[in-house]
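User: As part of a screening pipeline, I want to sanity-check one entry by hand. Below is the sequence and the SMILES for zinc ion. Please return the complex as C-alpha cells so I can compare it with the automated output.
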Amino acid sequence: MKKWIIWLGGILVLALILSLGILMGDRSPQDRRVRFSLVEVHISQDQLKILSQAGFALECSFYEKKGEELTFRIPMSTREFQVLKEKNISYQVLEEDIAKSYEIPKESTSWWTTSVKETKQSEDAPEEPSGPVKTMSLGSFGGFYTMNEFHQTLDDLYERYHDKNIITKRKSIGQSFEGREIYMVKISDNVEVDEREEEPGVLYTAMHHGQEVSGMMTVVYFMHYLLENYEDPRVQDIIHNRQLYFIPMINTDGFAYNEKYFPQGGGMWRKNRNGEGVDLNRNYGPEDYWDSENQGSSDYPWAQNYRGKKPFSEPETQALRNFLQKKKIHTAFNYHAYSNLYIYPHGFENVPAHPLYLEMAEKMSASNGYRTGTPGDLLYPVRGYSDDYFFAQDKEKDPIFAITPEVGTYYDNFWPRSDRIFPLAQDNLESNLLLAEYAAKVAQTPLAQETTEEAKAREETSEEASEEASEEISSGEKTEQ
Ligand SMILES: [Zn+2]
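Assistant: Here is the complex for your manual check:
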C-alpha cells in the first residue's frame, strides 16, 4: 500500500515538473524565430505609394529605377505576403528563407548565396584590418561582434587609452524595452568634463534597426581610428576641440534577437521587441512630424515601419531624447544600412533641406560617391524619423545637423561578407572626420529655424535658377535617382 502511494506521489511530482517545463518552454508568439524571405517586386510610382502606406519599409533596402518601373528586393515576413496579394501586386521569391542561406554550403547557386555569402566566412577574410586602423579585430558573428564582444571591445578601448584621459567607460543612457542597457562612450580631451559651451558636440549612432550591423562596425572602427591616430594633427585637433559621443547600438533588443535566433548571421529583425515590434526610426516626435499627412510610417503593428502608439512611446527613443536634452550636439550621423546614401531632413513633408546640409553632404559624397537627398528626393517621404527630430527637436534649442548614412551596396546588404566590414568602414572615414569638423561651422553660424514657407521659397528660387541653367545646356543628360 505504502509503495503504491510513493509511486503515485512520484508520478504526480514528475507530471508537475514536466508541465512546468512545458510552460517555461512555451514562449510567447513574438519570442520565436520569424522567417524572412527575400522578395522582388516590380512596381509603378503609384504602387510605391500603396506599398509605403501599407507599411513596407523600403528605405533601407534595394531599389532600382528603369523608366517608370521600380524594382525592389525586400526581406518580407509571411504577413507581408498577404498584403501583396490583397493589393494585387505580383512578386517573385528570390530566397525562401534568407537566414537559411547563411547555413548552407557555398556551392548553392541561389542568388543570395552566390552574390553575398560566397566568401562570407572565407579563410581569405582579413584577420587584421589593413589601412589606417591596426588593432581592431573582427567578431565571431559572421565577422560582426556579438553583444558580448561589442561590450568587450568598448572596454578594451577604455583600458588601452584611458591613461591619456581621452575616452570614458561605456555608460548607459537608458534601457531597452527588454531591459538591456544602451551604451554611450565619449571621446575628447578632459573627457570627464562637460565642456558644452566651449567645444562643439558631435554624435555618432548606429542600429536604430536590429539587422543593420555594418553601421555598428563602422562607428566602432572610427573610434579605433581616432584613438590609434591621436598623434595625427587632424585627429588631435578634433579630439582637443570637439566632444565626440558614440552610441553604436541603439536597438539592443532587435540585435539580441537576431543573435539568438540567427547565430550564423542573416537575421532580419528590424524593429524593437515591444509586442510585434516598433520601428524606432518612425517613433520620434514632435507629434506633427510623427503624424504628418504624408504617411511614410504605418499604424499596423505587424508592419516593418510601425510607428508605435504615440511619439516617443518606446524606451529606446526616450533614451535618445533624454540624452540630446542633456548634451549640446551640433552634428550627428545616424548610421543605417544599406544603399550608399546620405539622407537628410526633411522627411515629414517635402520641404527642402537647409543649404548647409547640401554643402556637408556634397563634401562627404565627394569622398565615397554616396548619393544625397531628402527622403522625398531619394524615394518617398518618411515621418517620425530621427533626423527631423534632431534638426527641429526643440524650437528653443539650436538644431542638430543630423544625416543618415546608408552603408553598403545591394551586394553587401544587411550582413556583408566579413571581408567587406573594414572596407565599408573605411568608405566612411573621411565623412566621419568631416562631420566632426563641420560641428564648429554649425556652432558658429546663427541658425534660426527656417520656416516651411521660407524653405519652399528658397527651393522655388533655386529651381528657377537651375531651369534657366539647364536650358542653356542643351545636351541635358539626366542622372537617374
Ligand atoms: Zn535602417
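Points to compare against the pipeline: The pocket of zinc ion is lined by residues 60, 208-209, 212, 336 (CB under 6 Å). The chain has a mean pLDDT of 84.
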